Amino acid sequence: MQLDLDQAPPPPLLLLLLLILTASIPHASRAASFDYADALDKSILFYEQQRSGELPEDQRATWRGDSALTDGQDVNVVDLVGGYYDAGNNVKFGFPGAFTTTMLAWSVIETGLELDSLGELGYAKEAVRWGADYISKTYSAPDVLWAQVGDAQADHACWERPEDMDTPRTAYRIDAAHPGSDLAGESAAALAASSIVFQITDPGYSSELLAKAQDIFRFADAYRGKYSDSLGEVVTPYYNSFSGYEDELLWAAAWLYKASRDEQYLSYLIENGAGFGGTTGTYYTATWDNKLAGVQVLASQVIWKLSLQSIARYKTQADNFVCSVLPGNPKSTATITPGGLLYVQEASNMQYVTSAAFLFFTYAKYLEDASQTVSCGDVQVSPDELNAFAKQQVDYILGNNPRNSSYMIGFGRNFPQRVHHRASSMPSIEDHPAKIGCQEGFQYLQASSPNPNPIVGGVVGGPDSSDQYSDDREAFTQSEPSTYINAGLVGALATLAGQTL
């Protein structure tokens, strides 16, 4: 309800009621309008700025240069040049990197028409290809998967541009004797999802990706174990596999079935779902560690398309995921900040927000296609309600929040300026060709001035549970962007931008 300022003022009692109603509306739920197409363009551009290796001629982020051109040479048997730096550091972590590629591919699969209409499909597919090419390289021989490039402890002891790196580029692997079903499962999922992206435009490449995905899945399932148990302190302080590997095996099987329509993968989902925990428990969202919510949403589409009751339990758990997050229903357990943001934890909280928004949009589409709703106890939730919550989360990121600040770098008038990101915080190699050493670089971490190279499109970790944010490079839990924060946002923004066409 809106007040018409050209009319006579309302009676005092009505005015009082209007004030009470207005005060009760959470900040982030009020109407907001943003240039979603611009935000989408920037969210994809972010990935060009995270590239490792030899940059292509059509690179739009020209302040970046070639880097890590000898990756893999320490083992003398494999080319590991390429891929993405996961966040503000210079290490290539395989686990979050593979998840990023899976989610980017899923975004293209679900919103390809919107991306094409907006002129972004080519850029989005290149972002997927850059990730898939690297993951394909990491599976260098049967039952050998390279998990990480770069000594993370040495890297974190320096503040260097990628172009200047002189820390060890050690390559770490998993194999039959040192298993990592979680990393291998996610890598298989990433290549299977990517194969779908290129099925029509590059069928030969698509077939290569799918074949490799199938072999990696075989390896993941045959030699079971957590990659963080095998690699120990190499990955444990950074990307430990807390949820285990069973969710990644289900995730990979779901993507392999979607990509190949091979019945063995559907049978795997049917036979292992309950035993692997894929249909038990409630999880707020899909993350680089826990894929169960993603499995449940993805499997639900299969249920309706094939009228399969044998995996109907996945739909029940997908509903439970939605109900646990969505405020105002009897099963809601998630924390929502006073300003309306889904809040899971202090460190990089926006990763949960962006993936939840994408899953809500995607599940809403699946529900609409199947004429279904979500059951939250006795309450039925419509697809429109899922869409509204997802839009609210995206709008919060873009500026509809108590601080009236965008959490996407370069978007809007008020966005983070002092971002925890080595390359962004230092003079570019173009402006300062001379090497900046490991310890010399810390002056840029500690400087109070804005980053000289805004890493446009990156979304930072975000505010705390009270909607407060510190624009401080050293407050890395809030001020660091990452590839896996943006991965779900690409599809969410494409959905919203497509609605305005």
From TrEMBL:
SUPFAM superfamilies: Six-hairpin glycosidases (SSF48208)
Region of interest (Disordered), ranges: 455-480
Catalytic residues as annotated in Swiss-Prot or TrEMBL: 420, 471, 480
Gene Ontology biological process terms in this record: cellulose catabolic process
Pfam families tied to this protein: Glyco_hydro_9
Keyword Hydrolase: yes
Gene3D superfamilies documented for this protein: 1.50.10.10
Every Glycoside hydrolase family domain range: 36-493
Signal peptide extent: 1-31
Keyword Hydrolase attached: yes
A molecular-function term among this protein's GO annotations: cellulase activity
PROSITE patterns registered for this protein in UniProt: GH9_2, GH9_3
InterPro entries: 6-hairpin_glycosidase_sf (IPR008928), 6hp_glycosidase-like_sf (IPR012341), Glyco_hydro_9 (IPR001701), Glyco_hydro_9_Asp/Glu_AS (IPR033126), Glyco_hydro_9_His_AS (IPR018221)
E.C. code: 3.2.1.4
Keywords assigned by UniProt, alphabetized: Carbohydrate metabolism, Cellulose degradation, Glycosidase, Hydrolase, Polysaccharide degradation, Signal
Coiled coil, from the record: none
Catalytic reaction(s) noted: Endohydrolysis of (1->4)-beta-D-glucosidic linkages in cellulose, lichenin and cereal beta-D-glucans
Domain of life assignment: Eukaryota
Family, as annotated: Belongs to the glycosyl hydrolase 9 (cellulase E) family.
Protein name: Endoglucanase
Organism: Selaginella moellendorffii (Spikemoss)
